[in-house]
Amino acid sequence: MNRLTTDVLIIGGGAAGMSSALSAAKTGADVTLLEREPIAGGVLNQCIHNGFGLQFYHEELTGPEFASRLQREMSEEGVSMIGESYVRHIDVREKKAVVLSPKGAFEISAKALVISSGARERPFGSLLIQGYRPSGILPAGLAQRYVNLENYLPGKRAVVLGSGDIGLIMARRLTLEGVEVVAVIERMPYPGGLTRNIVQCLEDYDIPLLLSTTVTKVFGKGRLEEVEITKVDERFVPIPGTSSRLKVDTLILSAGLLPQVEDFDDDLTIDPINRGFVVSNTGESSVEGVFAAGNNVAVFDLVDYVAAEGWIAGRHAALYALGKNTSGDRVPVVRGDNVGVVVPGIVDMDEHVRLYVRLKNPMDKGTLVLKELGLEKSFSYGVPSEMIQMVIKKEKLMPLIDAKRLTVEVH
Ligand SMILES: Cc1cc2nc3c(=O)[nH]c(=O)nc-3n(C[C@H](O)[C@H](O)[C@H](O)COP(=O)(O)OP(=O)(O)OC[C@H]3O[C@@H](n4cnc5c(N)ncnc54)[C@H](O)[C@@H]3O)c2cc1C
């Protein structure tokens, strides 16, 4: 088996991995990026709509434009990107990876690792919908790949289950390609995606959004023929007598993303609510010298956040690999009232903190409070789908030394 070495090994070449690779190379490290697809870019390559890059590049770009900029910058900085390389196993203590590729298996060892493996879609089987498993039922990201990259249409008449951003964007995309999108179905009493996507993807195309409703049954053996939709109560239990049927040949599932941690989680701590790797504000995981960034830490709503976090993780991974690590005292971040997803999970006092919070429930008006620091940020309307972000300069972190924790709560 071939054996390679590098200073910083990046696993996964989406926005997080490419941005990590670029910043690690700019910090002076020798960098290798492994990506299972032939080219880097990750999910950006199939997101041909615009709305990317406003914060990272201060321009509105499409996904492929954002990806190709990072690809070009990586190659100018001398990052060695190896495509068609599937990382099968990582030994986080030894910082070694076993990789499968069409040219054969190889092993690569590094001084520091950045894991940036993204997220995967929640599958049909986890949704407990009755009926056979006919063709025509597919996750939204896969449908997007078929339509945008492979030039296939998944069907003629569709219903979308889940009003997260991917579902909303696919409702519009399918409509533009001539598919009749009958409705978007959402079990929550409020939409799951960004407000701008509700307006631009549904309202502008007259696609109905049915709230507090779910798909309870699918009909058809070879191919999907109909779905049964039913109203649900506040605990998502179907309400008897409220079912109706929709004649569709396609059911698009947009039931959320799950951080992709399975291949790598043996030795790394996972946050039970984020469902991704616990990292500090330097991107370092629970194992020294092993960093993680992007949607495998928590599902972020904007690629700009993912790229910014990748940048920080890449720089710190390079400093670690070059023996210039400057990590400071560390304290845990603790969730208070109405806080769901929160990143980071640990505060390193030697780096500024970029804090990301998702509310547990929507609020008309609220204040994000960092208890031990006496800092606050008010917002006029908040929903779980839109992350609240707050930057705290490292000079303001001193009170945490005595407090030994940072409590994040929303009032
Ligand atoms: C449909 C959709 C629409 C979106 N719209 C917007 C938008 O309008 N604006 C916006 O800002 N954001 C948007 N986003 C969000 C944004 O695109 C993502 O948050 C971001 O691109 C995720 O980057 P990532 O690097 O974490 O993950 P990914 O892009 O998923 O990259 C992970 C990479 O790791 C590779 N990988 C995984 N496991 C392995 C392994 N074992 N070995 C080798 N390689 C591996 C994968 O092949 C992949 O290339 C959208 C996302 C989706 C899905």
Output the keywords.
411 residues; alpha/beta; FAD/NAD(P)-binding domain; 3 domains; seven-stranded mixed β-sheet; five-stranded parallel β-sheet; 7 helices; globular; binds flavin-adenine dinucleotide; oxidoreductase activity
Give a structural overview.
The mean pLDDT is 94. The chain has helices at 15-26, 63-76, 140-148, 165-176, 195-202, 303-321, 400-403, and strands at residues 2-11, 31-34, 50-52, 61-62, 80-82, 86-91, 96-100, 106-115, 119-121, 137-139, 157-161, 180-185, 209-210, 213-219, 226-231, 244-247, 250-253, 257-259, 290-292, 330-335, 339-343, 346-348, 353-359, 366-370, 375-379, 388-392, 406-410. The protein has 411 residues and is an alpha/beta fold. It folds into 3 domains: 1-121 and 257-327, FAD/NAD(P)-binding domain (3-Layer(bba) Sandwich), CATH 3.50.50.60; 123-255, FAD/NAD(P)-binding domain (3-Layer(bba) Sandwich), CATH 3.50.50; 329-411, no CATH class. Helix 3 (140-148) runs parallel beside helix 4. It is built from 7 helices and 27 strands. Strands 1, 2, 5, 6, 7, 8 and 19 form a 7-stranded mixed beta sheet that branches. The longest helix is centred in the C-terminal third of the chain and has 19 residues, at 303-321. Helix 4 links the parallel strand 11 (157-161) and strand 12 (180-185). The structure holds flavin-adenine dinucleotide. Residues 11-17, 34-37, 42-44, 47, 51-52, 86-87, 116-118, 141, 144, 165-166, 169, 260, 263, 294-295, 300, 302-304, 306 line the site of flavin-adenine dinucleotide (FAD).
